[in-house]
Design goal:
6-stranded mixed beta sheet, Rossmann fold, globular, 38% helix, binds adenosine-5'-triphosphate, alpha/beta, 4-stranded antiparallel beta sheet, 2 domains, binds magnesium ion
Length: 269
């Protein structure tokens, strides 16, 4: 479990960004985090892997306090992060070199590193790309390589900070499918996104506002709260909520696609 207790954070310039955050991320769950630009999402998730440590309060990962420097190596192995810009996180020349970088730092046997690299590359759907040069990969393939890198580290918690924001629509939905698959494989997922429709893939949604958690609940409840407080939500969600409110739609789960909405409608008629 990742646990935030009374966490506040101010950047060195004195800018206070997180304010008294209490939060728990349970193992095996898929949590989406959304919110306006500057609401503190990246600052929050950087605390999960100990890249930032609280100015006040504590963050612990599997009971290890990130303020204790002797815990940081283990915490960073347990919590793998992938960021928005796929180019900024590449460390090797080829896919194989890049994915091997983390395990090499764990001082594992060569054979073990090779096994981990090949199985992780396969898990992200990049089998056969091991020898390819990173500079010849697309943005989506680079992001998959970065994900393979944290899988090869055997990270249990996968934290994604807007990994689809530089991808086109099709690559975005493929990437989200991969993230869902990793969650089904047992990984705990924290997924920061601006795309509200992606939130439906999660089993919990958190909306950040001005450095605090403004809404926390199931995606359906979060959409409902956002809608009733006047925020714009994806048209499909708005339509589903309005159909429910008028009693036309009976299903309690919000449809994630037009096909699902059609199915719900047919069932209700
Ligand atoms: N290194 C820094 N020094 C000072 N202030 C910072 C620093 N990094 C971020 N901030 C400020 O902290 C606030 C929250 O930033 P953060 O990056 O956590 O927001 P975010 O919700 O991830 O935004 P976005 O949606 O744009 O990625 C912003 O006001 C930002 O200007
Ligand atoms: Mg951010």
């Amino acid at each position: 479990m990742i646990r935030f207790e009374g966490v506040s954070y101010s950047y060195p310039d004195g800018h206070k960004v997180l304010d008294e955050i209490d939060l728990q991320i349970e193992e095996g769950t898929f949590t989406a985090i959304t919110g306006d630009n500057g609401s503190g999402k990246s600052t929050l998730v950087r605390h999960m892997s100990g890249l930032l440590t609280p100015s006040k309060g504590t963050v612990s990962v599997c009971g290890m306090n990130t303020l204790d420097p002797s815990n940081l190596r283990k915490v960073r192995q347990l919590v793998g992060m992938v960021f928005q810009d796929p180019h900024s996180q590449a460390v090797g020349a080829t896919v194989e070199e890049d994915v091997a970088f983390g395990p090499e730092n764990l001082a594992l046997e060569r054979e073990e590193i090779r096994d981990r690299v090949f199985s992780s590359v396969l898990d992200v759907g990049m089998g056969g790309f091991e020898e390819r040069l990173l500079m010849n990969l697309s943005g989506g393939q680079l992001q998959k390589t970065a994900i393979a890198g944290i899988l090869a580290m055997r990270s249990e918690y996968l934290v994604f900070d807007e990994i689809t924001s530089m991808l086109d629509h099709d690559s975005r939905s493929m990437m989200l499918d991969l993230v869902k698959k990793l969650n089904h494989m047992g990984k705990t997922v924290v997924y920061v996104t601006h795309h509200l429709e992606e939130v439906l893939a999660a089993d919990r949604a958190i909306v950040m506002e001005g450095g605090s958690v403004a809404i926390d609940g199931s995606p359906a409840n979060v959409f409902r709260e956002l809608y009733s407080s006047g925020h714009s939500i994806p048209p499909l969600m708005e339509l589903a909520i309005r159909l429910k409110d008028t009693g036309i739609l009976e299903n309690n789960v919000l449809p994630a696609t037009v096909d699902e909405l059609m199915e719900d409608l047919c069932r209700s008629m």
